[in-house]
Predict the structure.
Amino acid sequence: HNRVISIANQKGGVGKTTTSVNLAACLAERRQKVLLIDLDPQANATSGIGVGQREGGSIYRALLGDTHVRELVVPTAIEHLDLLPSEVDLAGAEIDVARADRYLHRFAEALAPLRAAAHYDFILVDCPPSLGILTMNALCGSDSILIPIQSEYYALEGLTVIERVIGQLRASGANPRLEIEGIVMTMYDGRTNLAQQVVAEVVKHFGEKVFETLIPRSVRLSEAPSYGQPIIVYDKHCTGAAAYRQLAREFLKRRKAG
Amino acid sequence: HNRVISIANQKGGVGKTTTSVNLAACLAERRQKVLLIDLDPQANATSGIGVGQREGGSIYRALLGDTHVRELVVPTAIEHLDLLPSEVDLAGAEIDVARADRYLHRFAEALAPLRAAAHYDFILVDCPPSLGILTMNALCGSDSILIPIQSEYYALEGLTVIERVIGQLRASGANPRLEIEGIVMTMYDGRTNLAQQVVAEVVKHFGEKVFETLIPRSVRLSEAPSYGQPIIVYDKHCTGAAAYRQLAREFLKRRKAG
Ligand SMILES: Nc1ncnc2c1ncn2[C@@H]1O[C@H](COP(=O)(O)OP(=O)(O)OP(=O)(O)O)[C@@H](O)[C@H]1O
Ligand SMILES: Nc1ncnc2c1ncn2[C@@H]1O[C@H](COP(=O)(O)OP(=O)(O)OP(=O)(O)O)[C@@H](O)[C@H]1O
Ligand SMILES: [Mg+2]
Ligand SMILES: [Mg+2]
């Protein structure tokens, strides 16, 4: 494998962090070796997986070339799942990285030793809600992008923008091989017309790229981060846990089918 | 009045746009003259209020000094409510503005003629989900910040960061008079413990700054943007409309009490 996947969508609050943390945990449960990279200055994935922030311990140092990524990787409470944490200071990084040389490729270069070692089956990157420097860095250093979409109207509006950005990265040569790993519908509440309409619209637009697994809206999913636990640890029998396990199965099936 | 208020929170999906559009409409309904500025490249407030995007018609032009803000203001279907629209291209603006002179004060300078004319009682600015250049510009040019907070765990984590940023803007002289207008709790579902715990935590932290009006989670609020209508037009009798009308009343009462 050794595949790097950015979990990105500039629309805020669509479930990027929730999907990063829980898909990573469910893949690790299926004995895949996974590294979760928290590239968001909010550091939600870092706390959501139960790891404390350490000043100077984030990927920020590696993006500016001060530290080797290997020194920043920490284990989590989940077997086969490691984390490269974020820190709140990363917010200052956007400007520092923007002014550095080869500013779009700092992430790819920092990650190169980990890629070469090929220790991980999957490297998942939780991105901030923007198409700024940090997300563009992640996309330039990834094999594919996984796009969580909330089953709501505003979430539809940004789809053409992300598609355009992917096209630009490919055409400009910044990352010619960037693929769409898939689209995950999140916070789906089948009782509302709105959710059904949004899913129909997304399927019309992205076709087979849309995962069949729909992640339902579930309070347990929003409670788990306050305990620093993925859903399969916090409440393994709830609908949220079943949905992310299902997503991990579908994700691996699609990978095998290539 | 003539007060400029940024509606900001770097956490994504907390209800910034929903609050901007609906508070603006409810203030206009109470015969306040309101200008809504969409500073988010996603342009959600622009479509949420039913205005189409026009290439070159966004505040982006004014931030770079190419056009006068007055030429960019358009009326909306709501009496007493005007809009300064966004456009998807604004995403490119972050980098252009970052490289311009006085890059933190482009918004304040562009807005100066409108402030001087004192035609509006309130100017509300819908910000993107980040503390990058566009949001910092809005904060430097505002009298106060209104912070919507989703009644969820991850939303709590970013509070200390915003407070730090406000303190830095005041202390550095970038905007010594920036105040906190208030905190609005959004998507509140009183049946969950989580929501109650989060509200208690926010009140402990911000005390009286927290508006008593809690905006409930309501599907009608998430349906309204697909019709390009604020909630008081889409479904004037629903709980979402009552809540935002209540918020507008409380907001004006606090302003009068000064
Ligand atoms: N399926 C779900 N059911 C209920 N709540 C959910 C679900 N998925 C995510 N949430 C909650 O919704 C909020 C937004 O999710 P999350 O923070 O994962 O989105 P995000 O896209 O990472 O946000 P940001 O844009 O700020 O990075 C969080 O409070 C989260 O706990
Ligand atoms: N009180 C509410 N009840 C139900 N849904 C809501 C409520 N407020 C907002 N929403 C929905 O939740 C989603 C997020 O809200 P909104 O887009 O206003 O947040 P935002 O903070 O502006 O997001 P971004 O960070 O992307 O700018 C939208 O789909 C919106 O329609
Ligand atoms: Mg996130
Ligand atoms: Mg918004």
